Amino acid sequence: MFFERHGGGERAILVHLEGQDPEAREDPQEFQELAKSAGAETVAFFNVPRHRPSAKYLIGTGKVEELRDLVKAEKVDIVIFNHVLTPSQERNLERVFECRVLDRTGLILDIFAQRARTHEGKLQVELAQLDHMSTRLVRGWTHLERQGGGIGSRGPGETQLETDRRLLRVRMSQIKARLKKVRSQREQSRRGRQRADIPTVSLVGYTNAGKSTLFNAVTGSDVFAADQLFATLDPTLRRLDLGDLGPIVLADTVGFIRHLPHKLVEAFRSTLEESSNSDLLLHVIDSHEPERMQQIEQVMVVLGEIGAQDLPILEVYNKIDLLEAVEPQIQRDANGKPQRVWLSARDGSGLELLEQAIAELLGNDLFVGTLRLEQRFSRLRAQFFELGVVQKEAHDDEGASLLDVRLPRAELNRLVSREGMQPLEFIEEHTLQYKPDKAAVPL
Magnesium among the record's keywords (predicted)? Predict the structure, then answer.
């Protein structure tokens, strides 16, 4: 964008280092899926058994020469490393290979740039790209010592590198200002849902776990879903009615991945806040994935980075159609609360169990029942109608109002206490019921 460099291409050599620290080790199969999602045609997969990374090239000089010969023989356009490279390492490798060199962070950024559809998503990707680019400007210039001042071009005397860095800072400031405005609009919509007492449920999970397929199956939407990494980038929200629980908002969000670049976490913070402000998280897990436990750990790490690790979580084990002798089911904890649901979003088996589990978890603090209000409580009756929580009204022989209501118990206790009456916290039998008890609670 702001500098000259080797042109990109599709023929790629993938380089993976073995023998790394287990905490920093990357998955080679996932690396190949990332390259495929980016549109690269893999010419060769180069496995390097390296225990001590080189400061100059990351890999040893012997492997560098071997790779250089392979690049020339196969007419490769790009060499992609499954690790984070420093700017100097990228520059040194490009000088030897005479082609484009990309690290894991740059590869993920490229995929995000292809997937972004909304204006907000494109801004977030550009911000992450510029942040990543800001430390790599030096590589493409051979005349950085030249200054802009001189006959016919009097100026501040900036070097070309300084000019580019200033342009980058200006553009990044503009994007951050726009994203701040988008964030305020998103928060306004979120506050509106909170005032209407509509719970928000967000789908989170490792990339390609089947979140969008599940989202489409539950809501009847047509969000793009494909068997590829980061098929979903922009968040999508849909309204869903769950029987006696009433309406909820279901959000489909971007997938996570191990060692998700911090630049992306920061750039997509406004999008990820949709998850951190939810009433319930549905952690979608690929039950057919051999390394699903490691993927679960990585999702929890990212949830911790966005401050969502303490929210209620329901684990959803998807893709049971790929397993043998596994039936749709709800697994509960020692207290009987739903802990995980096993289902298949592709064939629709177990979706009703998911809706049941969501209703149980969100309904723990919901009052659903009939209240009997005498005429002297007309102001309280008006408040119930003002909040929009009255489902139906009838009257008994004595002229008292019989209100079928659905609202949070805390809100009900607040309204009742304001009228000088005893809170309803002791009425345990009137927490969420799928067939509300019609016996009126007298007030």
Answer: yes
pLDDT tens column, 233-249: 566 788 888 876 778 88
Report the 3 state secondary structure along 98-153: CCEEECHHHHHHHHHHHHCCCHHHHHHHHHHHHHHHCCCHHHHCCCCCCECCCCCC
**In the predicted structure, residue 252 carries a pLDDT above the cut 70:** yes
Of 56, 74, 76, the C-alpha closest to 6 is 76
Distance CA 226, CA 349 (A): 19
pLDDT tens digits, residue range 343-399?
A: 999 999 999 999 988 988 887 666 777 888 888 888 888 888 887 778 889 988 888
Tokens of 278: 């939810």
**Cα–Cα distance measured from residue 69 to residue 105, given in angstroms and rounded to the nearest whole number:** 25
* Predicted local distance difference test score (pLDDT) of residue 104: 87
pTM assigned to the model: 0.67
End-to-end CA distance of the chain: 69
| Chain CA centroid to CA 243, Å | 27
- CA-to-CA distance for 296 and 317, rounded, in angstroms? 11
Task: Give the CA radius of gyration of the chain.
Answer: 28
Residues 165 and 160: their CA atoms lie apart, in Å, by: 9
Distance CA 121, CA 126 (A): 9
Residue 67 — very low, low, confident or very high, per pLDDT cuts 50/70/90? very high
* CA separation for the pair 381, 395 (Å, rounded): 13
